[in-house]
Amino acid sequence: xxxxxxxxxxxxxxxxxxxxxxxxxxxxxxxxxxxxxxxxxxxxxxxxxxxxxxxxxxxxxxxxxxxxxxxxxxxxxxxxxxxxxxxxxxxxxxxxxxxxxxxxxxxxxxxxxxxxxxxxxxxxxxxxxxxxxxxxxxxxxxxxxxxxxxxxxxxxxxxxxxxxxxxxxxxxxxxxxxxxxxxxxxxxxxxxxxxxxxxxxxxxxxxxxxxxxxxxxxxxxxxxxxxxxxxxxxxxxxxxxxxxxxxxxxxxxxxxxxxxxxxxxxxxxxxxxxxxxxxxxxxxxxxxxxxxxxxxxxxxxxxxxxxxxxxxxxxxxxxxxxxxxxxxxxxxxxxxxxxxxxxxxxxxxxxxxxxxxxxxxxxxxxxxxxxxxxxxxxxxxxxxxxxxxxxxxxxxxxxxxxxxxxxxxxxxxxxxxxxxxxxxxxxxxxxxxxxxxxxxxxxxxxxxxxxxxxxxxxxxxxxxxxxxxxxxxxxxxxxxxxxxxxxxxxxxxxxxxxxxxxxxxxxxxxxxxxxxxxxxxxxxxxx
Length: 527
Description:
Layout lengths: L17 H62 L2 H12 L4 H28 L1 H8 L5 H8 L2 H15 L6 H24 L3 H27 L14 H32 L2 H11 L7 H19 L3 H28 L1 H5 L7 H20 L3 H7 L3 H26 L1 H27 L6 H19 L1 H4 L6 H20 L3 H15 L13
Helix pairs in contact: 1-3, 1-5, 1-6, 1-7, 1-8, 1-9, 1-10, 1-11, 1-12, 1-21, 2-3, 2-6, 2-9, 2-11, 3-5, 3-6, 4-5, 6-7, 6-8, 7-8, 9-10, 9-16, 9-17, 10-14, 10-17, 11-12, 12-14, 12-18, 12-20, 14-17, 15-16, 15-17, 16-17, 18-20
């Protein structure tokens, strides 16, 4: 129908294969709630970033961002790759081996808490050295020391909330990670800023919010798996398999976090804290583009692991293409919105952010678009046991990113960092696509997906050609650009129509957003 040439071997007709429709329904139910929660969480975080920019200015925001870079890198080291490795094992053991599930949950949480304490201590002890020798900014020392206690809190919250998805539900992960943590953080941050506590109050809010969210995540874990507190169920620990699944992911996670924060850190080293503040503010909106990808991946990951373990390759191929198409529906309109409204969006952070911030935002949006459109490529490789490919791709991407940052930041500042990051993201995703096709004979694209991308690019060119005509609307030009570009794409999607899996997602979204009591059963679809 709307697929690219089929992979080797028979590929099922999606309109007739009820198992693939069932997979789509499961993914849609998870993605629908996750999207709602992630959207609210992203909005809360965006409001928080605007508050930081308004109250602290470029320099203060840059100082906080550099401290957060150190905390996030320390966190991913402390996690030891266990969130994804443990999730994979919970998904496999769930429903068949309660003692092993209990062993995975206890060992994962305990190991990460201990490693988080150790990593936080190392950050606290090395604060002066890092501030002076790396950033050449003694003021960074107190920020790093103040943030060090956050490392075990952030680590425990991350592993606890991730393990919850192993039970094939995203509800409690979304509640703890996307609603409770950013919600508590925003309330406390705003309170401390209004009381005049400045950056110190912002750090207190960050630590407290992760403590609250971590406790809630552990409570949700007990709710999903009551045997966790049942002394009659003796845990069976399989640390060798847990760490065997996790260590390769640890290296991948470290490299991905290094990639995510390399631009920030290198701006701090090669430029100024003001450049860091400008860059972090400009990156907030583009980083929302992968929101739907993260929402679908959170439920897709355990599904992929389960289908691969059962040898259900055809179903895996179907759900990969379906979720990628869903991501495309959400991401391409968002990308056009950023392109057409970059200046107006950056003005929310303050006038000082608009001079170069709109260019930084547009450049980063290109990289985030490519990252989103590759769908669950990287997650598929990991869930199918090819963590080594993810590792090699991440190493190459980090090396390329560091080289490009060193080359571009001295001359172009924040814009150079954005160019380096976008090129690196595009390169690593193209590499993962190649290996997914070469090694697993899978790809995430359908003709419908490519058609939406082509339509979006066409509308982008159309608005660019009509730029002079659109600008006659003056202050309403922004609205005119959005109506022509984003509105045109939405009309195109509606006219093209949705297939059966897409209708499942649409009904799930209506269930979440409009409060409908139930969605239609799969067998209500004709054909």
